[in-house]
Design brief:
It is built from two helices and two strands; from the N terminus they run ββαα. With 70 residues, it is mainly alpha-helical.
Length: 70
């Protein structure tokens, strides 16, 4: 059952590390923005600049070890 008085709106901020102010109201709109305004940027090491992206990069640095096969 849903609350008819709820005004929660889900928004999606641009994941660009270049402080892009764009915020969309849906995933399709965000996808179009990223593909037109930030084409190719997703290949950068600091993409996406989100909490999950930063956490993933942080854990990858800790997993590098000595690089040898075991």
């Amino acid at each position: 059952m849903t609350d008819d008085n709820s005004s929660d709106v889900r928004t999606y901020p641009c994941p660009s590390p270049d402080n892009c102010p764009f915020t969309s109201g849906g995933a399709a709109e965000l996808l179009e923005h990223v593909n037109t305004e930030h084409a190719g940027e997703f290949q950068r090491d600091d993409w996406p600049d989100t909490q999950a992206g930063r956490a993933s990069r942080s854990s990858e640095k800790g997993d590098q070890g000595d690089g040898g096969d075991e």
